[in-house]
Amino acid sequence: MIVEISIVPIGVGESLSQYVAKALKIIESKISNYKLTPMGTIFEIENFKELGKILDEIVDELIKNGVPRVYTVIKSDFRIKSTTMDYKVEKVKAILKFDK
Amino acid sequence: MIVEISIVPIGVGESLSQYVAKALKIIESKISNYKLTPMGTIFEIENFKELGKILDEIVDELIKNGVPRVYTVIKSDFRIKSTTMDYKVEKVKAILKFDK
Amino acid sequence: MIVEISIVPIGVGESLSQYVAKALKIIESKISNYKLTPMGTIFEIENFKELGKILDEIVDELIKNGVPRVYTVIKSDFRIKSTTMDYKVEKVKAILKFDK
Amino acid sequence: MIVEISIVPIGVGESLSQYVAKALKIIESKISNYKLTPMGTIFEIENFKELGKILDEIVDELIKNGVPRVYTVIKSDFRIKSTTMDYKVEKVKAILKFDK
To answer: Which residues of chain D are within 8 Å of residue C49 when distances are taken between CB atoms?
Structure first.
C-alpha cells in the first residue's frame, strides 16, 4: 500500500523542520524509496503493522528530543491490484496530456 | 494516545455503511470504549503498532467482502502527559461555558 | 455536505484547548448543529466556499490571539443524494445491531 | 498558506485517475505552481475562501461526470512568517545533509 504521513510536533515552538528531519532519518533507515513533500512523506509499505513500528520509533525519538506532544495525520491507499507511487502520478499525467 | 480512523472502501458503490459496520465490529471486539462519529471512529490505544494490527485486520475483512481498494485517513494525538478522549472535550466545553 | 475540521495551533505550547474554544465560538455563531469530538468538530455545510469563510475567520481570530502558525485537517463527504450527520451514524448502528 | 488536497470520488469504480485528472485540470487553470504527488496535490493559496471556490468547482465538475459522492481530505499550513512549498522541503533536506 501507499502511505503518506505528516508529523506535527506540538509544544516546541513554530519551527518544526529539525524534528521533521529526525523523523525522516528514521524513515530513511527503513524505506529505500520515499518522497518528501512540503506537506508530508510518502512511501510504499507492506501493511499497517510495519507502518506502526516506524511511527512508534518516530514518536519515541521526538520525545527523547523534548517534544511533549505529537500530532500525526496518515493517509493510506491499499489496492489488491498492486500499484506504485510512480504509476499513480504517471497515469494522471498521461490522461492530462492526452486530453490537451 | 487518541486516534481517529476513517475507512473509505472504494470500488463497491456509493453506499458504504455495511462496510463501515464490518470495520466497526472488529474495533468493537478489541476496544471497549470507542466513539462512532459521522466522519470516523475515535478511541484510545497504546501505540501505533497496536493500531496497525487492528487496521490490517479491517483491511483483510473488507477484502474478503469484495472491496478491491481501501482508502484510510488516520489522525492521532500522542501526549506524554496522559490525557483521555473525554477530558479533551470537557476542557473545551468548560472554557466555552466560562467565557459566556 | 458533511465536514470535519481539526484546528492545530502551533507555537503556543502544548495545551491547545483555549484556542480550540475560540475556534468553536466562531463555529457556534454560524452553525446551529455541530458535534465536538475529541479529534475535531463535525457539521453540515452548503459548500466549500462557505466553509472557507468560517476557516478564514478562525485563522484570523487565532492570529489575533498570538498563534503564529495554524495547521488544519479537513475531511469532507459530499453526496448528491442528501444525507445528514445523524443518518450516517444511525445506519451503521442499525446494521451492527441487526447482525448480532 | 500551503495546502494539500486529496479528492476521492466514490461510486465510480476503483480506478480514479481519470477523475483526478479532471480535478487537476481545474487546479492547473487557477494555480501556476502545484505539485502532484501519489497521494494528493499541493499548492500555495491566499486563504480558505479562495481554496473553497476551487474545491466547489472540482465537486461540480465531478458530479457532471457522473460521480455521486466525493470524499475530500485537506491539510493546510498557515504561517504568519511567510513560507513556501520549496523552502519547507529544502530546509529539512539541509538539516539531514548537515547531520550526516
So the answer is: 49, 52-53, 56
pTM, to two decimals: 0.96
The CATH number of residue D70's host domain is 3.30.70.930
Cα nearest neighbour of B67 on chain D: D14
In the three-class reduction of DSSP (H, G, I as helix; E, B as strand; rest coil), residue A16 is classed as: coil
The tally of domains found in chain D comes to 1
Question: Considering only CB atoms, which chain A residues are within 8 Å of C16?
Answer: 10
What residues in D contact B72, CB-CB < 8 Å? none
Q: What is the ipTM of this complex?
A: 0.94
| Strand C34-37 with C2-10, pairing | unpaired
The 10 Å CB-count burial string (b at 16+, else e) for B33-49 is ebbbbbbbbbbbbebbb
pLDDT per residue of chain C (100 residues) written in tens, 0 to 9 = 999 999 999 999 999 999 999 999 999 999 999 999 999 999 999 999 999 999 999 999 999 999 999 999 999 999 998 889 999 999 999 998 876 6
Which amino acid, one-letter code, is at C26? I
Residue A35 to chain D, least CA–CA distance (Å)? 9
Domain that holds residue A32: 2-99
